[in-house]
């Protein structure tokens, strides 16, 4: 495996924790919770026009004629374009990933000769109001010949009708690898357990939909683009690469954003079109996605099958694992991540989970279908992989007659650093401790007793366990170690003001994670000042700090590292001047609790505020050859992959009359190394687990046989609500990272990564008297009631089962 | 999701409202907008003119008239939820109202609007059918009353004429044995099945039972086979079980992405069982 050369920006300073680890209230909340946020829909520019899209009503068709003249003649319409008009500026967005067997696709900004999924943009209308634009959209005159709609990924992968002519075999991705002697493990296995698990198609469904505003000033060739993207700098780069806008004159602005969850970590045709439209009409243009568009045309997520098998030896140890993932990628690779995000991540990232398995083999395939492209969604791919591994762990435990806790403890990695079969090093972890902690939290013997008692009354409760290891702090190292070559780094700027307060700017845009709070904590502790004396600006403009995107559980780790490094440069300046003022050596000065003090000399100190004031206004306090800038910008990228870990145990009851799954309690254990702010970590757990419950029980983007999407409003697409959210009990373990700033690890995705497996395991545990095991999400009331109807009589299941 | 163009009037009298409706066959009444506004936004409806009733007097009020309660069509779900008269005289309405959407929507949506909309998964059509309510309507041909049995005739279809306005509903208070059951995956969701059952306790038995089903079926309807069964004798566990089986046999439920016909049949049976057992306890 290729290793990263270690560069200067990969080290972080040692910092004494003061505010880190405490429940600092989110500084964002007073503004956001009182309606004082400014989201993209709140922004109106003088003279702006409004944009609406004509989207394909059919899954697959050849466009034989398209005539926009009636649209162009309609009241209030400034411009209308079809695919032909826009192709002159941009042929489309290339989607591919540098992994074995990836065949790239080009997604046109507006459909060309063929439409490939319901919701694909076909024409765009710019008008005086959104009303006028939508009225005009209805005037489109076009003819198309319907082509076979490829809906089923198994059939697509097997050949047959082609979904996208750019992928003649219907495969956007096809590869695999093997590590260790997998064949021997399976040949010599005492027992093999296997299963095919299905994670259904869902939407990240952020509460704020997507939105773009573009304003082009022809005289200075300046483009300002507002987008609630998670990757403003990448978007800026794409605007130059694809559209030729001069890089130095492009600014991407990210206002307050109401959730992204990966859906907003793509580059979309709409983001490329609006700058072109603004330039063409000479006025600002605005598009706010409506909920129907968001459910139809925002990147979809998750849909894939994972076939998994464990070879077990006579002692019940897993000696080998085979994982075969087949993803439904939709009609195109979703730029920039591609169809690889689901099946590739599902098998390549942590193929052995928390288990000490010496041999692993995997294959990944992504089938093209005539459905909306599948992209990233919180814990992308890891969810399906964890789902398959952890549900099969329960199957194995049942087959061996072991408790799910014992089976996991029997197989868990115990010694660190541990090198997995791929050669990836896991430096530290509390994998075994997680299992012990969960077993204690749920009081397993008491649960079993209660379960047995309730069964006698015809009530069915179940406990499901799921343990995870999460690759976090997405970095160049993580990418390289997993066989990719993506390069990441982020910068942060820290400035100490004359009164000893600090302003911090980071390169990551925030979608609600509380980055302004946690980064203030990191800066405060590094500078030795109070957290309320630090103001953090998350990326609002690409004119400031650089960032590789708020993705991959990297915010706390990567922005935190950059903030600590930049603050450390400023800290050194303060120490130099304090040393001069206190007539001590710089090495003896420490900055803690607002004071610059001489180590070991109790009364030799000066306030950091006084030092800052002196640097700005008092030349006499300066040492010789001093350079007074109290502002520093530094980069950070972790030197190696890092992994957080934890687990959830979920307690459910199945309602025998309705098949409804009722959630009684969630037990969560999280080890993300040093916890910067428990409130924020717990919020991430709660939100992520709820999304996992949604993806397991309530949510599915459904299609009919003709490729028509059936779930286009929240009436039909069932997001979980507070009334189905059970109480949580959360336990923190802290195993600091060996190499990140303050030992933090990322954890933003773990809830969704691991919760679905716990839900399915809980439901299957509850169903155990019926002898039925479910493996396909979502666990609809219909499926659950069907399962409970097996061998039942009016009085309950057969006693013999 | 912007509505197509429409004209809008806000008449100040009922007569004026009726005139607008009579003058244009594509006119639609706007009450709370709970169902109409989404239909407009999705461009599933394109009325030429909306006749907003919010300034029309006389459509409000919940009036206890002894053997019935007269409820104005403009009364919001939230007002019903908070009404002492309803809680005391028609507790089945209090029980059903909390299943209607969420508090914000209940504060906008109206009793009359939902009733006239005749959504098969609507709580009010199901409940009013089981109570044998009487609808009061006014139109260009004057006032008339329509019995619930004659009012709900199909999915989103009532016998209210296009130019008529539902003004009040008279709901009998004599059916003191009652049960309302709804199976919804989450609070505020449309129900997968709704069952309302009522009767008059008489000599340890249940007289004049009425049982209705909504949501699981194409249009809200009574389960007359179940009603006949309930009139046969005292309500017992065994009778509840038989009622469930009878209900399952007498419905032809719809299939959609939220549940197939067989699932909904089981659900209707479960809800009828629960409803009858509750009647037993109340009787």
From TrEMBL, chain A:
Keyword Oxidoreductase found: yes
Entry keywords, A to Z: Molybdenum, Oxidoreductase
Domain Aldehyde oxidase/xanthine dehydrogenase a/b hammerhead: 34-148
InterPro entries assigned to the protein according to its UniProt record, in alphabetical order: Ald_Oxase/Xan_DH_a/b, Ald_Oxase/Xan_DH_a/b_sf, Ald_Oxase/xanthine_DH-like, AldOxase/xan_DH_MoCoBD1, AldOxase/xan_DH_MoCoBD2, AldOxase/xan_DH_Mopterin-bd_sf
Keyword Oxidoreductase attached: yes
Pfam families membership: Ald_Xan_dh_C, MoCoBD_1, MoCoBD_2
UniProt cross-references to Gene3D superfamilies, sorted A to Z: Aldehyde oxidase/xanthine dehydrogenase, a/b hammerhead, Aldehyde oxidase/xanthine dehydrogenase, molybdopterin binding domain
Name assigned to this protein: Molybdopterin-dependent oxidoreductase
Organism listed in the record: Nocardioides furvisabuli
UniProtKB/TrEMBL annotation, chain B:
Lineage: superkingdom: Bacteria
Family annotation (InterPro entries): CO_DH_flav_C (IPR005107), CO_DH_flav_C_dom_sf (IPR036683), Diverse_Substr_Oxidored (IPR051312), FAD-bd_PCMH (IPR016166), FAD-bd_PCMH-like_sf (IPR036318), FAD-bd_PCMH_sub1 (IPR016167), FAD-bd_PCMH_sub2 (IPR016169), Mopterin_DH_FAD-bd (IPR002346)
Record's keyword annotation contains Chaperone: no
Pfam short name (any one): CO_deh_flav_C
Domain FAD-binding PCMH-type: 1-176
Record's keyword terms, sorted: FAD, Flavoprotein, Oxidoreductase
Oxidoreductase is among the record's keywords: yes
PROSITE patterns from the UniProt entry: FAD_PCMH (PS51387)
Protein known as: FAD binding domain-containing protein
Organismal lineage: Bacteria, Bacillati, Actinomycetota, Actinomycetes, Propionibacteriales
């Amino acid at each position: 495996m290729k290793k990263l050369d270690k560069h200067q920006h990969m080290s972080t300073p040692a910092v004494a924790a003061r505010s880190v680890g405490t429940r600092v209230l989110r500084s964002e909340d007073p503004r956001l919770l009182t309606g004082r946020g400014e989201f993209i829909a709140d922004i109106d520019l003088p003279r702006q026009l409004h944009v609406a899209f004509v989207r394909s009503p059919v899954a697959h068709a050849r466009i034989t004629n398209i005539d926009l003249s009636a649209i162009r003649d309609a009241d209030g319409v400034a411009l209308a374009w079809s695919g032909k008009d826009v192709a002159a500026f941009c042929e489309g967005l290339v989607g591919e990933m540098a992994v074995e067997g990836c065949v790239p696709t080009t997604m046109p900004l507006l459909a060309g000769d063929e439409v490939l999924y319901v919701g694909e943009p076909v024409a765009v209308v710019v008008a005086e109001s959104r009303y006028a634009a939508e009225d005009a959209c209805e005037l489109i005159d076009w003819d198309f010949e319907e082509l076979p709609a490829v809906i089923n990924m198994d059939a697509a992968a097997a050949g047959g009708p082609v979904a996208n002519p750019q992928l003649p075999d219907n495969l956007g991705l096809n590869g695999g690898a093997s590590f260790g002697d997998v064949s021997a493990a399976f040949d010599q296995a005492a027992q093999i357990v296997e299963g095919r698990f299905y994670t259904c198609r869902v939407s990240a469904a952020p509460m704020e939909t997507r939105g773009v505003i573009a304003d082009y000033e022809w005289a200075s060739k300046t483009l300002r683009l507002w987008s609630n993207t998670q990757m403003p700098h990448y978007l800026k780069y794409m605007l130059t690469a694809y559209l030729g806008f001069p890089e130095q004159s492009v600014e991407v602005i990210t206002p307050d954003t109401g959730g992204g969850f990966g859906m907003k970590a793509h580059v979309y045709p709409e983001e490329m079109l609006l700058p072109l439209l603004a330039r063409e009409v000479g006025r600002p243009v605005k598009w706010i996605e409506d909920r129907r568009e968001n459910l139809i045309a925002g990147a979809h997520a998750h849909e894939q099958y994972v076939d998994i098998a464990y070879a077990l030896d006579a002692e019940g140890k897993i000696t080998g694992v085979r994982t075969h993932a087949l993803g439904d990628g939709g009609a195109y690779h979703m730029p920039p991540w591609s169809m690889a995000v689901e099946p590739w991540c599902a098998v390549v990232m942590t193929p052995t989970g928390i288990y000490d398995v010496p041999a692993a083999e995997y294959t990944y395939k992504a089938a093209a279908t005539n459905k909306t492209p599948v992209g990233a969604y919180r814990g992308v791919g890891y969810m399906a992989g964890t789902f398959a591994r952890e549900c099969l762990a329960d199957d194995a435990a049942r087959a061996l007659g072991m408790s799910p806790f014992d089976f996991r403890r029997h197989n868990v990695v115990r010694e660190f650093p541990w090198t997995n079969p791929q050669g990836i090093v896991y430096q530290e972890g509390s994998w075994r401790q997680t299992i012990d902690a969960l077993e204690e939290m749920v009081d397993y013997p008491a649960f079993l007793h209660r379960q047995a008692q309730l069964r006698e009354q015809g009530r069915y409760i179940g406990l499901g366990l799921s343990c995870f290891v999460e690759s976090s702090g997405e970095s160049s190292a993580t990418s390289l170690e997993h066989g990719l070559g993506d390069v990441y780094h982020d910068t942060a700027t820290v400035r100490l003001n004359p009164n000893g307060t600090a302003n911090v700017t980071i390169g990551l845009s925030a979608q609600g994670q509380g980055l302004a709070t946690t980064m203030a904590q990191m800066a405060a502790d590094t500078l030795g000042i109070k957290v309320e004396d630090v103001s953090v600006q998350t990326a609002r403009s690409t004119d400031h700090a650089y960032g590789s995107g708020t993705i991959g559980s990297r915010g706390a780790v990567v922005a935190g590292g950059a903030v600590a490094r930049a603050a450390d440069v400023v800290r050194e300046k303060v120490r130099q001047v304090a040393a001069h003022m206190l007539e001590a050596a710089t090495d003896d000065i420490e900055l803690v609790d607002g004071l610059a003090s001489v180590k070991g000399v109790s009364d030799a100190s000066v306030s950091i505020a006084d030092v800052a004031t002196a640097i700005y206004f008092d030349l006499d306090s300066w040492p010789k050859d001093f350079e007074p800038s109290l502002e520093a910008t530094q980069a950070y990228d972790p030197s190696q992959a890092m992994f957080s870990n934890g687990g959830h145990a979920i307690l459910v009851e199945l309602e025998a009359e309705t098949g409804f799954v009722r959630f009684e309690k969630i037990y969560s254990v999280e080890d993300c190394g040093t916890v910067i702010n428990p409130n924020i970590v717990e919020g991430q757990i709660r939100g992520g687990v709820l999304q996992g419950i949604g993806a397991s029980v309530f949510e599915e983007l459904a299609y009919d046989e003709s490729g028509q999407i059936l779930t286009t409003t929240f009436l039909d697409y069932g997001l979980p609500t507070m009334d189905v959210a059970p109480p949580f009990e959360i336990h923190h373990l802290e195993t600091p990272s060996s190499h990140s700033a303050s030992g933090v690890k990322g954890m933003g995705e773990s809830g969704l990564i691991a919760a679905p497996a716990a839900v399915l395991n809980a439901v299957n545990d509850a169903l155990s008297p019926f002898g039925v095991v479910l493996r396909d999400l979502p666990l609809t009331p219909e499926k659950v009631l069907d399962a409970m109807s097996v061998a039942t009589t009016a009085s309950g299941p057969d006693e013999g089962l | 999701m912007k509505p197509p163009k429409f004209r809008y009037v806000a008449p100040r009298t009922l007569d004026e409202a009726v005139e607008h409706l009579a003058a244009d066959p594509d006119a639609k009444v706007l009450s709370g907008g709970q169902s109409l506004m989404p239909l407009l936004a999705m461009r599933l409806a394109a009325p030429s003119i909306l006749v907003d009733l919010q300034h029309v007097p006389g459509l409000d009020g919940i009036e206890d008239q002894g053997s019935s309660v007269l409820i104005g069509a403009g009364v919001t779900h939230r007002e019903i939820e908070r009404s002492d008269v309803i809680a005391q005289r028609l507790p089945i309405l209090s029980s059903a109202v909390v299943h209607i959407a969420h508090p914000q929507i209940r504060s906008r949506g109206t009793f009359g609007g939902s009733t006239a909309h005749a959504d098969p998964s609507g709580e009010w059509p199901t409940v009013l059918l089981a109570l044998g309510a009487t609808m009061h309507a006014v139109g260009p041909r004057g006032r008339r009353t329509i019995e619930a049995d004659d009012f709900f005739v199909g999915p989103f279809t009532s016998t209210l004429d296009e130019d008529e306005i539902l003004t009040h509903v008279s709901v009998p208070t004599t059916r003191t044995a009652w049960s309302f059951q709804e199976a919804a995956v989450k609070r505020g969701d449309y129900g997968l099945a709704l069952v309302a059952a009522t009767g008059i306790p008489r000599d340890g038995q249940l007289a004049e039972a009425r049982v209705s089903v909504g949501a699981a079926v194409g249009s809200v309807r009574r389960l007359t086979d179940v009603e006949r069964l309930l009139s046969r004798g005292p309500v017992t566990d065994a009778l509840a079980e038989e009622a469930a089986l009878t209900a399952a046999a007498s419905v032809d439920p719809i299939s959609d992405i939220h549940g197939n016909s067989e699932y909904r049949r089981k659900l209707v049976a479960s809800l009828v069982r629960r409803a009858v057992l509750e009647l037993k306890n109340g009787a």
